[in-house]
Amino acid sequence: MNGRLQGRVAVITGGASGIGRGAGLRFAQEGAKIVIADLDREAGERTAAEIRAQGGAAVFIRTDTASAADNDAMAQKALDEYGRLDILIASAGISHAGYDPAHPGSQRRCPIVDKPLEEWERVIRVNLTGVMLSNQAAARRMIKAGNGGAIVNVSSIAAIGPAPMLADYSVSKAGVLMLTRVLALELAPHKIRVNCILPGHIRTPMTAGLYETAQLMPPIGRYGEPADTAAALLFFASDDSSYITGKHLAVDGGRT
Ligand code: NAP
Predict the structure, then answer these.
(1) What pTM was computed for the model?
(2) What is the DSSP secondary-structure string of 40-56?
(3) What is the Rg, in whole angstroms, of the alpha carbon atoms belonging to the chain?
(4) Distance between Cα 104 and ligand 1 center (Å)
(5) Which domains occur in the chain, in start order?
(6) DSSP string of 53-98?
(7) Distance of alpha carbon 135 from alpha carbon 208, whole angstroms
(8) Which of 19, 35, 77 for a ligand 1 pocket mutation test, highest count of atoms within 8 Å of Cβ?
(9) How far is the C-alpha of 18 from the C-alpha of 33, rounded, in Å?
(10) pLDDT (tens digit, 9 = 90+) per residue, 125-146?
(11) 190: which DSSP letter?
(12) 223 given a catalytic annotation
């Protein structure tokens, strides 16, 4: 343990898997108590158990971040379980609607002219509205407690580089970037900082199989790991970035 988050409580959406899971494991090593919030109960319980097995504190709450009520219950869980809420990591997200579990990593790509409205609306609902709702639920409690806080959203390099055939994803992530900047100004008087990371190509279940078929190798010569994004999330979540808010950081091996 290094203790950079000693005494803090962190809620992590999408914490069951990939980037969120990596943050949970790392933050617990730094002394934070963790609330894992995710759609996937089995994987979420497993991640929380993993954190406890390594000597940390963690609980799981089944959460659909597209639901305002679920986000509210998720934020309340931190208070009920650990008495405070200092950090929110908003990592829950989908690469596209209509995901086919039989073909992990196979993003459903189609041009805007062919995009079914329900697919567009689902991606925006989870990736943008869901992040806003989680930020709102956490911020309300942080403001009430008066201890400040740190919110870190997980956007994507697709926010700053248009991803053809994935317009809904790209637009949702650009929205998260602007949400982060607006919220940073609104919450600054409450000493709540809001930043975001823009992952590039990180090896997670979301991208499983993708890198075997596509030529996406970043300039640095390897794909990213959840430990790489966890280090950047830790920077924004900890006091190391206490004078930084409304900013984004690409974690992309030089891609952008
Ligand atoms: P992941 O391994 O699929 O993890 C995402 C987790 O979020 C999954 O456990 C998923 O559950 C959960 N989730 C999805 N929709 C949810 C909802 N409505 N409410 C609560 N939980 C939900 O993917 P990841 O690669 O770690 O992605 C995490 C974030 O990073 C996403 O926002 C993604 O867009 C972003 N990102 C990833 C990369 C990359 O290269 N991996 C690059 C740029 C940005 P289910 O499995 O049940 O859906």
Answers:
(1) 0.96
(2) -HHHHHHHHHHHHHTT-
(3) 17
(4) 12
(5) 9-251 (3.40.50.720)
(6) HTT-EEEEEE--TT-HHHHHHHHHHHHHHHS---EEEE----SSSS
(7) 28
(8) 19
(9) 19
(10) 999 999 999 999 999 999 999 9
(11) G
(12) no
Contact 134, 88 (CB under 8 A): yes
Residue 65 φ/ψ, nearest 5 degrees? -70, -10
- Lookup: tokens for 134: 């989680």
Q: Which token pair is 53?
A: 């097995």
Q: Cα of 169 to ligand 1 centre, how many Å?
A: 12
Nearest to 131 by CA among 186, 172, 77: 172
Burial 78-110 (b: 16+ CB within 10 A, else e): beebbebbbbbbbbbbbbbbebeeeeebbbbeb
Which amino acids bring their CB within 6 angstroms of ligand 1? 13-14, 16-20, 38-40, 43, 63-66, 91-94, 126, 130, 154, 156, 199, 201-202, 204-207
pLDDT in tens, 211-222: 877 778 999 999
Distance (Å, whole) CA 146 – CA 86: 10
